[in-house]
Amino acid sequence: MPGEESLQVTGLKELYTLKDGKLFEEMGKDIAALRKKKPEERAKVIEEFKTKHAANLGVLIDPDHPDFGPKNNQFVYFWGARREGAPTSPPASPVPSARSTPTATRRSVRVPSTSPARP
Fold first, then answer.
1. Cβ atoms within 10 A of the Cβ of 19, count?
2. Does residue 95 sit within a domain?
3. How many alpha carbons fall within 13 Å on the CB side of residue 56?
4. DSSP state of 24
């Protein structure tokens, strides 16, 4: 398309960066230890994490917040209503919209009370 020749669109290859299972497990253990620390101790532990994993910081969403995890965590496949036999349209909203039937055309039904009459 004219004017979009230099447009870079992030694809799945860019989001799926951490493929090494051993590194994934090692980083996961260090992040789990980080989460157990008190807030005042976290800055020091994050610096230690960044030093230990300096070669692999590019796989993280945010190296200053390693507890966000790897870029792989940015992809979610949500099955939703795409199952066989399920409706494809979203469920009706409990809040009436401007296109819903006006209140004046709806019928009100009074249900007789079954409780004894009050004196």
1. 10
2. no
3. 17
4. H
**What is the C-alpha R_g of the chain?**
27
Residues in the chain with pLDDT values less than 70:
78-119
Q: What is the spatial distance between Cα 20 and Cα 26, in angstroms, rounded to a whole number?
A: 10
- Please count the structural domains in the chain: 1
Which residues contact residue 24 at a Cβ distance below 8 angstroms, ignoring those fewer than 6 apart? 18, 70
Q: What is the pLDDT of residue 105?
A: 47
> What pLDDT was estimated at residue 86?
59
Residue 45: give the domain boundaries: 12-74
Global pTM reads 0.54
Torsion angle, alpha carbons of 72, 20, 47, 61, to 10: -10
Query: Taking a C-beta distance cutoff of 8 angstroms, is the pair 34, 46 a contact?
Result: yes
**Angstrom distance (rounded) from CA 93 to CA 82:** 19
